[in-house]
Amino acid sequence: MKISGFRYLVNQGFENVWKNKMMAFATFCVVLISLILVGVAGLFYVNLNSMIAGLGSQNEIAVIMELNTSEKQIKAAEESIREIVNVDTVTFISKEDALERQRESLPNAEKIFNNYIGEDASFMPDGFSVTVNNNDIIADTIEQISGIKGVQNASSSPQVAEFLKELRNVVTLIAGAIIIALIIVSLIIISNTTKASVFSRREEIQIMKYVGATDSFIRMPFFIEGMVTGFIAGVSAFFTTWILYRAVYRMIIGQSVLMTTFGVKSLIPFGQIRLSLLVAYIVAGSLIGAIGSVISTRKHIDV
């Protein structure tokens, strides 16, 4: 095909969007709503997964050093802990800090602390509070820490780790099923809408076929028309999602109790996913619009 002919078909595709604006608008609305539904479901899953990871980071590993460990040995142990791949943060807890924590956790034993212990923390071991990046392999991390010289004991709550792992699996399964269902429903609706759009111009397609136009010549304007409509729907879905996401994000971030309790601080700012979401919306919208229109012309081309 010559460049002039290709340019003509592309121009026809753009013109058809305006000439058939009612059907184009219907296709636009369907693609827009479908993209938003699938996009919001995907964002919900990504953020929920991030929140679960945030909750997992609160499951600390308590590391207790051996008594009478020198400052040099403690420093060496801390460096060794930090070198472990799965370790996120390491906080040193001196014997004085450990004694103060015991006081706070045992308020009913205040007389014992005051009369017998006082401020003498020499009997308490130094230690560390360690958080991890991946709570699913916390058992392996504990084993690595326990093998470091000078470490007497390293432990965490295995129930918490197991619960969070199962929760992530359940969330992934449910979210995946919802997203797949939304995609299937959206494709069916979009397919029916594009069929209706093409059906309204079936006589135009058949006339072109009868006068000798090739299949590719007939399909190209519909391909361009569908792509343009899908592209506009993708851009519109992006900005709509942006507005909704930012509003919900600001509302939740303002709730300090939620942030602390449920790991909401792990919510993903829109700026981090903005480019990926824009590309996904535009590519998905353009492909769905273009391919849907081309497939819908098959019945009327085969005459």
Structure report:
A four-stranded antiparallel β-sheet has the order 2-3-1-4. The protein is rod-shaped and about 100 Å long. It has twelve helices and four strands, in the order ααβαβααβαβαααααα. Helix content is 73%, strand content 8%. By secondary structure, the protein is α+β, with helices and mostly antiparallel strands. The longest helix is centred in the middle third of the chain and has 42 residues, at 158-199. The two termini are 23 Å apart. Helix 7 packs parallel to helix 11. The chain has helices at residues 3-19, 21-57, 71-82, 95-105, 110-117, 138-146, 158-199, 202-210, 215-253, 256-261, 270-296, 298-301, and strands spanning 61-65, 87-93, 127-132, 151-155. The mean pLDDT is 75.
What's the story with the biggest beta sheet? 4 strands, antiparallel
- The neighbouring-strand order within the major sheet is 2-3-1-4
- The quaternary organization reads as single chain
Which range does the strand content fall in?
5-15%
Q: Which ranges are low-confidence, i.e. pLDDT below 50, for 5 or more consecutive residues?
A: none
Please provide the count of β strands.
Answer: 4
Query: How many DSSP helices?
Result: 12
User: What helical percentage do the residues reach?
Assistant: over 70%
Distance between the termini: 23 Å
Structural class: alpha+beta
Quick overview:
With 303 residues, the protein is an alpha+beta fold.
Based on the model shown, name its key terms.
303 residues, alpha+beta, four-stranded antiparallel sheet, 4 strands, rod-shaped
